[in-house]
Amino acid sequence: MNPNIFTAFTAAGTLVKTALFAGILMTVAPTVVLGQSSEKKGTTPYVTHFVFRPLTSIDIAELGKATTLEAVGTTQNMKGEKMLDKMSAQCVALNVASGDKKYIDGACVLADSDGDKIFSTFDTRDLDKSQPKMDCGTHIITGGTGKYKGITGSEPFTCINMPALAGPGGYFAMDIPHNTAWEIK
Asked: For residue 113, what are the CA distances in angstroms to 7, 25, 51?
C-alpha cells in the first residue's frame, strides 16, 4: 500500500473522530459547564440567613409602631441542589404593630453569582393552610432576569429568631426556611 494513502486515510479517520467528539461535547458541555438544570418546574426547600436593620420608625405610645426594615443575607438549598442556593438576598419591609394588627409586608430580590435575579413580594398575613409548619407568611415570586426570566411561584415560610446581635442599632437576625414551588415559563 502506498504510504501516502495510508497517512491520508489515518488522518481522515482522526478528523472524523475529532469532529464526532466535538459534536458530542457541544451537546453536553453547556449543561455540565454552566451547572444549570434544564428543569423548568420544581419544589425547593431553602433557608435564608438574614440580618435585619431598622431604617426608620414611627412609635406612638399605646397607639402603634411602624418600622421600615432592610434585611440582607444568603440562601442555602436544604437538598444540596443549585436552585436557590448560595444566592444573596436583600429585602425591604414594613413592620406594623397597632392594636390587633401585627404584620410585616415587603419585597425581596435574590441574586446568583451570574447576576441573575428573582423578585418576590411577601405578606405575613398570607398563610398556606396546607403547610402548617410554614406559619410566618408567604412570598409570591413575581419574576426574574437571565436564567430566571419568566419565573413565578409561591414560597410559604416560617421565622426562626436567632440570638440577639451584639452592638447598637437594633439589628436582629432570623433564619427563614421557605418551601418554594416554582415554574419558569
From this structure: 49, 25, 20
pTM of the model: 0.78
User: Nearest 5 degrees, angle CA 43-CA 47-CA 50?
Assistant: 145
Contact by Cβ (8 Å): 132, 167? no
Residue 157: closest CA among 110, 184, 182, 123: 123
Q: Tens digit of pLDDT for each residue in 84-107? A: 999 999 999 999 999 999 999 999
Q: CA 182 to CA 180: how far, in whole Å?
A: 6
State the Cα–Cα distance between residues 74 and 33, nearest whole angstrom: 24
Q: Which helix (H) or strand (E) holds 172?
A: strand 172-184
Tell me how far apart the alpha carbons of residues 136 and 127 are, in angstroms, rounded to a whole number.
7
Residues with Cβ < 8 Å from 14, sequence gap 6 or more? none
